[in-house]
From TrEMBL:
Subcellular location, record wording: Mitochondrion membrane
Similarity field: Belongs to the mitochondrial carrier (TC 2.A.29) family.
Keywords: Membrane, Mitochondrion, Repeat, Transmembrane, Transmembrane helix, Transport
Protein name (record): Solute carrier family 25 member 45
Membrane topology, from the record: Multi-pass membrane protein
GO molecular function terms noted in the UniProt entry: transmembrane transporter activity
Pfam families hit by this protein: Mito_carr
Solcar repeat positions: 40-126, 134-221
Species the sequence originates in: Crenichthys baileyi (White River springfish)
Domain of life: Eukaryota
């Protein structure tokens, strides 16, 4: 538990920071006056979300790998902790080993972070009266909807990613994303790609509702309007 808890803040800061900066750049790129371009289009929101997914994968793929390896081992004999896990991976698989499953992670996160922010912006706007700032209820509902929509789309590739990441820790060996998909589909059927979807969705609503509320609250404190 300690490793995910300590790294969640880092991952979220990377995602929200890169998204905010990308959206700010995209929404002003076609304008002479930035003040006229505060309302971003759906395409811009999706593109900024995809960009945040790219940045997140580049930085957090090793973190995600270590988390999966630690959670997947049934005993403490192989990895004694996060640092030992990294050391073992580097010794046995080299630097590339830290990015095992990185392609599957990118296929999951890049489009899904686009979908993560898009339903949030749409839902928040729908629940907010014209000309008024979004309230707590609108932000919580929009964040929860965004989390559920994202996991509904991300779960199939999340299953593939986890299997690829565990293949270097005594799990079944796969030659790549397509091989993993083919073998899993052949042996377990299409339902295998939706394992954990219900649990992920139940967890995603409150977690992402609070995440977005915290994000919006911090923006008001750290970046008040007019500054």
């Amino acid at each position: 538990m300690s490793f995910p808890v300590l790294t969640t803040g880092l991952a979220n800061s990377i995602v929200f920071g890169s998204y905010s900066n990308a959206l700010d750049y995209l929404s002003q790129s076609d304008c002479n006056l930035p003040s006229h371009c505060k309302q971003a289009s759906s395409v811009q929101v999706f593109a900024a979300g995809c960009f945040s997914g790219i940045v997140q994968v580049l930085v957090c793929a090793p973190i995600d790998l270590v988390k999966v390896r630690l959670q997947g081992q049934t005993t403490g004999e192989r990895y004694r902790g996060p640092i030992h896990c990294v050391a073992v991976i580097l010794r046995e698989e080299g630097l590339r080993g830290l990015y095992r499953g990185g392609v599957a992670l990118a296929l999951r996160d890049v489009p899904c972070y686009g979908l993560y922010f898009l339903p949030y912006e749409v839902t928040r706007k729908a629940l907010t009266e014209t000309g008024k700032a979004p309230g707590t209820f609108a932000i919580l509902m929009a964040g929860g909807v965004a989390g559920v929509v994202t996991w509904a789309c991300a779960t199939p590739m999340d299953v593939v990613k986890a299997r690829l990441q565990m293949s270097g820790a005594g799990g079944r060996q796969y030659s790549g994303v397509l091989h993993c998909i083919g073998v899993s589909l052949k042996e377990e059927g299409g339902r295998v790609f939706f394992k954990g979807l219900l649990l992920n969705s139940v967890r995603a609503f409150p977690v992402n509702a609070i995440t977005f509320l915290t994000y919006e609250s911090l923006l008001k404190i750290l970046c008040p309007p007019g500054k």
